Amino acid sequence: MTTQMFGAPIRRKEDPRLVTGGGRYLDDLGHDALAAAFVRSPHAHARIVDIDASEATEVEGVVGIYVHEDLPGRVGEPLPLLIPHPTLTHGRTGYALAKDEVNHVGEPIVMVVATDRYVAEDACQRIRVTYDQLPVVVGIEAARSGELLVHDDVPDNVAAHMLQEVGDVEAAMAAAPHTLTLDLDIERSACMPMEGKGVYARWDRDRGELRMYSSTQTSTGVRAAVAAKLDLPLAKVECIAPDVGGGFGVKIVHPWPEEVLVPWAAILLGRPVKWAEDRREHFISAAHERGQLQQVTVGFDDDGHLLALDVKLWHDNGAYTPYGIIVPIITSTQLLGPYKPGTYRCEFWSLYTNTVLVTPYRGAGRPQGCFAMERTMDAIADELGLDRAEVRSRNFILPTEMPWDHGLLFQDGRPLKYDSGDFPASLAKLKDLVGWDDFADYRRQAESEGRKVGLGIGCYVEGTGVGPYEGGHIQIETSGRVNVSTGLTSQGQGHETVFAQIVAQELGVRMEDVFVTTGDTRKMAYAVGTFASRAAVMSGSAIALAARNVRAKALRIAADALEVSPEDLEIVEGTVRVKGAPATSMTLGTVSVLSNPLRYAFDEAAKAATQFAGTFDPDKPPVAEDEEPGLEGKDFYSPTQATFANGMHAAIVETDPVTAEIRILRYCVIHDCGTMINPMIVEGQVHGGVAQGVGGALYERMAYDESGQLLNASFMDFLMPYASEVPTIEADHLETPSPLNPLGIKGAGEAGCIPVSAVIASAIEDAEGFPITRMPISPYDLWELRRRHADGEIPSLHRTSRTTSTPSPSSKEPTA
Amino acid sequence: MTDTTPATETLHDVTVSVNGVRHSAAVPARRLLSDFLRHDLELTGTHVGCEHGVCGACTVLVDGQPMRSCLMFAVTAQDHAITTVEGLCSAPDARTAPTGESMNPVQQAFAECHGLQCGFCTPGFLTTVTAYLEENPSPTSEEAREAISGNLCRCTGYQNIVKSVLRAAEIKAERAEERA
């Protein structure tokens, strides 16, 4: 029997190459290329009065200096608005090089191309840009007030205003026995992949063909966008995503200005050109996410059942909206998590500010939504004196109620309909893992030692694997080598391994014979991209379907050659054989030979495939009517809707009574992404997600001052967690298969980071006894909250019950 | 101001031993060691993640000691012995994997323990940990975590890197025993 590959913790095929220096990331390519560098705006909002590059042209090694006026035709037009939406009434995008006005620090104004990056940057520093500074809008409150405008023609700074409502919220709220209102605030963070963006382009003048490489999450998207911008036939443009050093969302946006300008310059100059983003550029001219103000009003009954949920969100979309309003749409829909809201209304305003643009970062609006919902659940529990897990459980959508249609439209424009999930089972596992029911004892013990500890919880549901489609192509060579290609890209998710596992399993071949290519438009021209935890679901399913096609074809050919029925055959370790009579067999390599009748015998295998070898039926064509030559197959997977993964996290934190330092003592995860292809890789995704969540909860923020300068635009000042800041993660899994796809899988990529801010806020609140409504939270923030709480500015929790049915002594109530 | 940057740069002869091979080149004084390795010698295994010495992706061994190659000039590496991630493959305790790559115990352990995802920061961890295990061949889990806490990784959450360090210590000991 072939070893079970699907579902096994197989070591990654990528790793021997990557640990030995064999990775080829963008800036590892093109040693002969010219280098591009950019003059970027030092002001958040200004009119460009003059650009003087006269001194820069003298720098030896400068090949070209370009401003907006130099850009011809569509290269000089605004960048595309990738995802339009009816409610995005005032979408705005920037230019590849700024035209007349800049709207955030970091916006590109001049491109210099030179013999190397040092020279290009020398030239940039000699270029004088004169600005007329304009008033700056920073922060959601300033944007919301509408006193100053980012774009003159966008009233009140509102890019989009969207409202979705299910049921009669007004009536349900009015009738609810209890209501609460929470004002919440979540700050900006960013993807911060270790490798920044980068583009490298070569123009083949003889053939009129462009080959470009981009550190992107969508090579098909970049190819199409660049071909359109440069007015080239699609057939004359190819785009390859080489090894990509992390993405987390920021590299799905396209085309970035540099993705248009670098190929344009390569064509203009007839020489290869490359640009590799440096860290400061990544901070100020890529993209951020998360920043929202939220107001939740909730109505509920005496048992904590939700009756009405009324949510308002003010979302900071930065200076432009090239990626539409995907993030606030996801917040407004995925906020509901595993719960039935009774009635629900969500209204959001997506607002312009003079800051770098906001596009999806791992979780893509869900961490904010989860924060809003889970803060609300804790508030209800506190108001009613109920156990926090119990309140959640009373509002769960039950497995018997699946599929559950929320009556809302999701980010893909399709119904928000949960396909499966077992929330009560997840919660039971989580309570068990973290020791929920024993926590009161643990707390008493800690308190007797003068320590402050708290337990937090957070639950989420994540729509993964959104369409429209992905494809898979499989071809088996006469050597038995299995080539697999899919168009979406890889940024560290182990696609070479998991897709090979699927093929090994479906086809009956050895892992070492399977070779996977991703993100290369030469190999697969039809693809969407890697985002929304969709790669395994979409490409995995497409590849499985393609493998089934190839398998059927191999069995047809082998059955014919072996003179048996296809049903009598099996494929084991790359050999097709008769069940029960394994000696009657042929390798898939031989089947491949037979699949492709040849005229020319270039080697021994080919000799067997020539039209003159063996016997044939002169009445039949060499390639049967319904067949194609070659042992290969292709298929596409296009689902009607997303598949919904879910998870529940709990953490125990300790807060220092004096310094207000916050330490995560335990972090527990229950994760359900349906059937797992490779549990080792899923767990790695969860670890990484939680680490980013911890960064977002405790350390990372984008410190803009009132003039729109990002004060912490370096790794010295932006506190990305090191190993010393990330807790050990205790993870367990539940596998509720998705009924929607052939493998039963759901996405796993983003999950880990979604509930972390909610969980940590919940735990700190539990430790401190007053509400936590703003994340991230630093020791200074907590210290300040304690002071305000002591001064009576912040109310205490009711705390009639904490985490168990055992009531805590009421004497614990702090006195203001 | 930068207006004083000379139009042409003076070049300096530099000879550096990289992975046991002597390389001589004429480079500008400001050429970073990281750029020299990556772009002049085309040893692209060393990666650059921040160019301000914080992330550790560019860590190489200078006479066996881990150093940030983005904080060194190529000319200051004169007469020093540099080991990059490519050079770890020819360590005396490296072994050839079934896939054909030669890996030292740390490289082997990272591949076994899923100690990397995108792999961009990995060379810096590998060089750092290789040097660390020379100092402390049998670290505890806490010591392993401390040892890697000068390098940034955005993918793994570090848990499997800690595991990899501990596994590397085991493999290193096994191979030392074989060689003895």
What does this entry look like structurally?
The complex is a heterodimer of chains A (816) and B (180). Chain A has 816 residues and is an alpha+beta fold. Chain A has three domains: 212 residues, Alpha-Beta Complex (Aldehyde Oxidoreductase, domain 3), CATH 3.90.1170; 348 residues, Aldehyde oxidase/xanthine dehydrogenase, molybdopterin binding domain (Aldehyde Oxidoreductase, domain 4, 2-Layer Sandwich), CATH 3.30.365; 170 residues, Aldehyde Oxidoreductase, domain 4 (2-Layer Sandwich). Chain A contains 19 helices and 29 strands. In chain A, the strands form seven sheets. In chain A, strands 3-5-1-12-9-10-11 form a seven-stranded mixed sheet, with helices on both faces. Chain A has a six-stranded mixed sheet with strand order 7-15-14-13-8-29, sandwiched between helices. In chain A, helix 5 packs across helix 6. The radius of gyration of chain A is 29 Å and the shape is globular. The termini of chain A are far apart. The C terminus of chain A is likely disordered. Chain B has two domains: 75 residues, Beta-grasp domain (Ubiquitin-like (UB roll), Roll), CATH 3.10.20.30; 91 residues, Orthogonal Bundle (DNA polymerase, domain 1). Chain B is built from six helices and seven strands, in the order E-E-H-E-E-E-H-E-E-H-H-H-H. The longest helix of chain B is centred in the last third of the chain and has 21 residues. Chain B starts with 10 loop residues before the first strand and ends with a helix. The mean pLDDT of chain B is 95. The chains are: A alpha+beta (816), B alpha+beta (180). The interface between A and B is large, with 64 and 68 residues.
